[in-house]
């Protein structure tokens, strides 16, 4: 709004349009799968100006849509642009790194997703403490049976100490793809760093 004290003030709305290289907002760095399964990789991004190339790359080659094998879908989801690569009937040759590449006239953005048989990373979904015990709950993505899990903890400037978490069939969630595993550790008061690893029939995460 501008005003010089004479007459009515003048106001005007100005619209600012920001343009730049594409921005990738979300992708999975690793996805657990199994031979014979169908798997979907997702890349959420924004691009202004509009992208001139949306590509999935494997082995330095552009992945093409092939009916009943690989399907590429480009659409919108939750206010973002989205590209999805679906691989049907996963085989050993499909277990490798995939790159989502978005390019517009001002630049490009690339994200990497690895497809494998070992478990996905263990994510801490809840924790609390009582009576000197730290209770932790971990969520793990694995189609294969989880056979072992280690919770590792350390204090400041010390090495991680592993403790084994017991696994039972009750830890597998109804979806058949994720596991929720609880482990309690007795720790004195202080600051502790905690992480976890899991092993399925194919190896360690």
From TrEMBL:
Q: Which UniProt keywords apply?
A: Immunoglobulin domain
**Residues covered by the Ig-like domain:** 22-111
- What's a Pfam family this protein contains? Ig_3
Looking up InterPro entries in the UniProt record yields: Cell_Adh-Cytoskel_Orgn, Ig-like_dom, Ig-like_dom_sf, Ig-like_fold, Ig_sub, Ig_sub2
PANTHER family reported for this sequence: CONTACTIN 5, FI23916P1-RELATED
Q: What is the recorded name of this protein?
A: AGAP011700-PA
Origin species: Anopheles gambiae
List the lineage, top down: Eukaryota, Metazoa, Ecdysozoa, Arthropoda, Hexapoda
């Amino acid at each position: 709004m501008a005003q010089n004290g004479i007459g009515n003030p003048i106001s005007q709305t100005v619209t600012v349009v920001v343009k730049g290289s594409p921005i990738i907002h979300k992708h999975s760095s690793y996805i657990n799968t199994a031979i014979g399964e169908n798997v979907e990789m997702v890349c959420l991004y924004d691009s202004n100006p509009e992208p001139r190339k949306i590509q999935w790359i494997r082995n330095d080659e552009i992945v093409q849509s092939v009916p009943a094998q690989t399907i590429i879908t480009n659409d919108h989801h939750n206010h973002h642009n989205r590209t999805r690569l679906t691989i049907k009937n996963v085989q050993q040759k499909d277990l490798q790194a995939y790159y989502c590449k978005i390019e517009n006239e001002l630049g490009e953005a690339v994200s990497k997703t690895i497809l494998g048989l070992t478990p996905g990373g263990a994510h801490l979904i809840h924790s609390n403490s009582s009576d000197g015990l730290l209770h932790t709950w971990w969520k793990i993505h694995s189609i294969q049976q989880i056979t072992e899990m280690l919770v590792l903890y350390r204090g400041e400037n010390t090495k991680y100490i592993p403790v084994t978490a017991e696994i039972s069939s009750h830890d597998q969630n109804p979806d058949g793809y994720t596991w929720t595993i609880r482990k309690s550790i007795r720790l004195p008061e202080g600051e502790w760093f905690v992480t976890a690893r899991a092993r399925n029939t194919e190896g360690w995460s």
